Amino acid sequence: MTEVRWERMFIDQLEDAFARCPLAYFTYGLCEPHGPQCAVGLDALKAHAIACLAAQRHGGIVAPPDYWHIHELGGYALWAQRYVGEVPRTWLTAVPPWVHFKNVCYQIRAADALGFHAAILLTGHYGPNWQDLKTLVELIQPHCGVRLYALPDFECNQPGFDGDGASGDHAGKVETSLLWAVEPGCVDVSRIPAEGTPGEHYAMGNNAREANRRTGERMAQDEADWLGAKGKALLTEYEHASPAARLRTFEQVEQMWDELVRPRLHSFASMQDSWDSPAQQVPAESTWYANWRVPPRS
């Protein structure tokens, strides 16, 4: 297969790929429990592999995956307390939202400074971070040339699992099937406990036993084709817009962060202590209590 992974390409290969299709893919996820049957890096493994498949089929260059993502605070801590439980070690590669999103700003700057015409930002991690990623892109887009689109991978998983509309879950039939298809060495369905076995099983989806590798292959191909079409639309948008603005310097990013993003950060969904109504709290004795509340200085 044609190499599309930025970090594995030689300079001449990068230049040739850029000339053919000046589209960049940035992929996100984190390491977290995904049932006993899936490797903990599922989110980014899945997103990165699907982006690579899209670039191989339709063109583009895939940046190195970003495994440091949002967890441990706010609604994420509440979710983990309920579904992961009081484990001795969480095995999370977690950072707070203001760290993750500022890194994203710098990644967009890299794409813009290199002259990419379009960039797709694909997250395999769920919860409300993907809504905030879309908000971030909306804030930044008027100030950079590269045309941007952000999404969770389930947005492009149509028509879902065997046409039933199930496009995303947490270590259930969808995610297990997708990872099984794109990284078969990272799934071991023999680890799935027998039905009725007590326990939360590291937040395994209730329908994980329905996972199917062939269905995962079909879903991955569908997602790759959706992304290819979106990339083509963004490239066409760039040609029509002929944008002059470019993010080139670190100082530009810092100014944009201070003036555009930081004032809105408190309203981001992933910055809320609870996603529930009425608001819930993590018990003080829980493993997840330490980082639950969002600090006011953020």
Percent range for helical residues?
A: 40-55%
Query: Based on the structure given, which CATH architecture is correct?
Result: 3-Layer(aba) Sandwich
Largest sheet: 4 strands, parallel
- Tell me the number of structural domains: 1
Distance between the termini: 44 Å
* CATH fold assignment: Rossmann fold
Task: List unreliable stretches of 5+ residues.
Answer: none
Q: What is the assigned CATH homologous superfamily?
A: Creatininase
Compute the CA-based radius of gyration. 19 Å
Helix-strand topology string: HEHEEHEHEHEHHH
Q: Proportion of β residues?
A: 5-15%
- Supply the CATH class: Alpha Beta
Number of strands: 6
Strand arrangement, major sheet: 2-1-5-6
Mean pLDDT: 96
The assigned structural class equals alpha/beta
Description:
With 298 residues, the protein is of the alpha/beta class. The protein has 8 helices and 6 strands, in the order H-E-H-E-E-H-E-H-E-H-E-H-H-H. The strands form 2 sheets. Strands 2-1-5-6 form a 4-stranded parallel β-sheet, with helices on both faces. Strands 3-4 form a two-stranded parallel sheet. Strand 1, helix 2 (42-58) and strand 2 (61-62) form a beta-alpha-beta unit. Helix 2 crosses helix 7.
For the structure shown, list the relevant keywords:
alpha/beta; 6 strands; 298 residues; two-stranded parallel sheet; globular; 4-stranded parallel beta sheet; Rossmann fold
